[in-house]
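Known limitations

Structure tokens in this collection are predictions and should be treated as such. Users comparing against experimental data should check residue numbering before alignment. To illustrate the layout, the record for RNA polymerase sigma factor is reproduced below. The input appears on top and the generated tokens appear beneath it.
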Amino acid sequence: MQDSMRDSESEWSVLMRAAIGGDGRAYARLLTEITPVLRGIVRSRGRTLPPDRHEDIVQDVLLAIHEKRHTWRPDSPLKPWLYAVTRHKVVDAFRRWGASVHLPIEDFTEFLESEPGPDPLARRDTDRLLAGIDDRSAAIVRAVAIEGEETGAVGARLSMTEGAVRVALHRAMKKLARLGAGSGGDRPGRGRDE
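Generated tokens:
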């Protein structure tokens, strides 16, 4: 088990370095691999919250990772940084919803060691989040950040320069972060009951 933890640490660090360097495919793969682990941590710590709040927290964690990824030091292990971001978002959620929580790092071990399986809620989470931005921005985020397409190919398809696609992606991600932070727990889009 320890070897698999070290392997995923090494692999995730490589993916994060590539993502910071602009590799959309690496970023999409990293997010796909870490989301089930983060979801497990949130569910474990947030047992007293309704399950729909868990998904809100997971989305907050993913947005925080995107916004703060430049603060990770590439010469440091990635997992402790990811878990610190997750811990802060879980604590923030409990504060926002008037509950208290104690999160000893040792409690995360059981989730860190498990092999992540396919995430059945990832598509729904992504669709809900992208519903809060305009269609063109959502298409760019979906193509580059999620599906891993090259910005040049996306630009050609949308009649945009590669630089314009990068700028639009950056602005869309910032808007998604603002929407998530300012929503008070509700996801952007048409509503919770969809």
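For this record: The longest helix spans residues 24-45. The chain has a mean pLDDT of 77. Please report discrepancies through the issue tracker.
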